[in-house]
């Protein structure tokens, strides 16, 4: 019988949690073939198949389910024990994994993380930009970033950055050709740059003025899924874009873009960092939370 490698048990748990060899390999920074070899070695050592593999999916067998049921708590206890040792160190160490939408990563989370890492050189940080709503625990993240009203009840949340503001923008060239909209409903007569979310839904644009709220589903020939590409399209005169102010502040100051309907801006909440309330928090994650907790967020720029 081939000897059992204990690290292969953690790799097995990673594969099941991530739903496949490739995702587990990316999370561990190794090749898919290395993950496959480890699983093959584990199955050979135990003398039983743990995973059913198809070209599209990986799922645990009955034996795999039984092993995983006992393995999860055991690995949790091991990680907790290691982290308790880390608390005896003068400086926290470990890895913090965070899932965040692109705009939050671009303008708040990444700059914050760069500063944090200078103060805590033994802490590694992994940021995955993803607009999809996911189960951060199931996907192996320590925390996620979303709007306040998108958080599950069993999560602890803290503000991350100042309140947000959208800007409706277009290039001077586009406005010379098509004119300026005077109200949100006028946008329905314009070429708007639309956004499709990862789940397939189209973004709606919401406005507010003097207690009146207007929501429109913009029309246009161009549909994108990235704020960076929407900005590029607006700069090229392809239509009117709906973007966070942070993306276009310099363009507005330099005259490359023009802001429209400024008196129709609807107040928005800030981003929120959220993390599980019922899960052990590592020393590295606690240091990151404390760093954020002591930050003072100034008012949004106008």
TrEMBL record:
Superkingdom per UniProt:
Bacteria
> Which is one GO molecular function term here?
DNA binding
PROSITE patterns in alphabetical order: HTH_LYSR
Do you know which InterPro entries this protein is assigned to?
A: LysR-type_TF_proteobact-type, LysR_HTH_N, LysR_subst-bd, WH-like_DNA-bd_sf, WH_DNA-bd_sf
Name this protein carries in UniProt: LysR family transcriptional regulator
Q: Which family does it belong to?
A: Belongs to the LysR transcriptional regulatory family.
Q: Which UniProt keywords apply?
A: DNA-binding, Transcription, Transcription regulation
Lineage, opening ranks: Bacteria, Pseudomonadati, Pseudomonadota, Gammaproteobacteria, Oceanospirillales
For this UniProt entry, which residues form the secretion signal?
A: none
Q: Where is the HTH lysR-type domain?
A: 4-61
